[in-house]
Amino acid sequence: MTDLKTVWKSQEMEGNAMTSLAEVRARAARFQTGIRWRNVALYAYSAISILVSLRLIARGAFPDMRYPIMLTVIAHLLVLWQVNRRITARGLPGDVAGQPALDFHRQQLERQAHGLSRAWLWYMLPMLVPFLWELGIMLNRIQSGQAGPESARILAVFVGVAVLFWTAVLLAFSRAAIRTQLQIERLNALKAE
Amino acid sequence: MTQDEHYLRAMAEFGPALARLARTYEADADQRRDLLQDVHLALWRSFAGFAGQCSLRTWVYRVAHNVAISTRLRRRKARLVSLEALDELAAPDDPEGAVGNAHLLARLQTLIRRLTPPDDQVMLLYLEDLDAASIAEITGLSAGAVATRIHRIKQLLSRRFLEGEAS
Lengths: 193, 167
Hints:
The complex is a heterodimer. Chain A is mostly helical. Chain A has one domain. Chain A contains six helices and no strands. In chain A, helix 2 runs antiparallel to helix 3, helix 4 packs antiparallel against helix 6 and helix 5 runs antiparallel to helix 6. Chain A is elongated. The longest helix of chain B has 24 residues. Chain B folds into two domains: 73 residues, Orthogonal Bundle (Rna Polymerase Sigma Factor, Chain: A), CATH 1.10.1740; 84 residues, Orthogonal Bundle (Arc Repressor Mutant, subunit A). Chain B is globular, with a radius of gyration of 17 Å. Chain B is built from eight helices and no strands. Chain B is 72% helix and 0% strand. Chain B is mainly α. Chains A and B meet through helix 1, helix 2, helix 4 and helix 6 of A and helix 1, helix 2, helix 3, helix 5 and helix 7 of B.
């Protein structure tokens, strides 16, 4: 009768592992470089957003939108900071060796669940406040006759698309949070065995 | 010992086991290579903080399985099942009397890939010939829970692989 453990250990190996310290160091360097470039890209995006917004304010392009635009810049920075903070921990956590697999797995899921369940707070709310402010200004313009009926139709489409988009985002975050929470509960039950 | 020395010793002792782990978790050759390289990188980095908190074997397997968990969480493609559920499922793709170790290994790897954590980890470590106490230390399950799983694994393997061979 076949000894499965012997067969298991006798399987042929492929020569695709890093075999030297030089290769490991090179990959470690590439890993760090990748993180640096991602950070550069994130900060460049925020820098461009800020510059464009500040230019609009300085040129007086939309005088009554000045404060909502400033708030949008702050919102972008806030979201950027949050995304960066949450993604940074996703690489190779420092405690990857310090914990048994079950605890590590649960910790990873809890971090995900925490971020997902509060997405409305750190992802949606900062953008929603300046959006509603701008909306209020545009409605006021229409009501006071500063903008024509065509603007009202464009605004209605714009609001409809925004509502659909944010509802879809919220539902996606909520579904993912529920799925993650179920996995955490399953691991908790295993831990209690 | 330095970080480099720990890493080289770990590779000498557990390099083949890590390659088997990557081969089991990833069917695709490119993804398998990426996972194995991620494990190597994580191990080398982790040895900067290794001060004999546990045995070298426990440390290496914890890092490897935790990196594999992170990878699987990012991908989340396949629908996974528990050991009990897998045991109850029919195996239409398992022809009785199949011959050859390569075929047997491929079936074993497919079987483990379908399992949810930590059942997949327990089976992998069982096949690597670790005892229940060591598996408990690596996975974080209680010794009793590991013993129960090993019992089920033995039954499952016996039904899936050994009975077919005997007939």
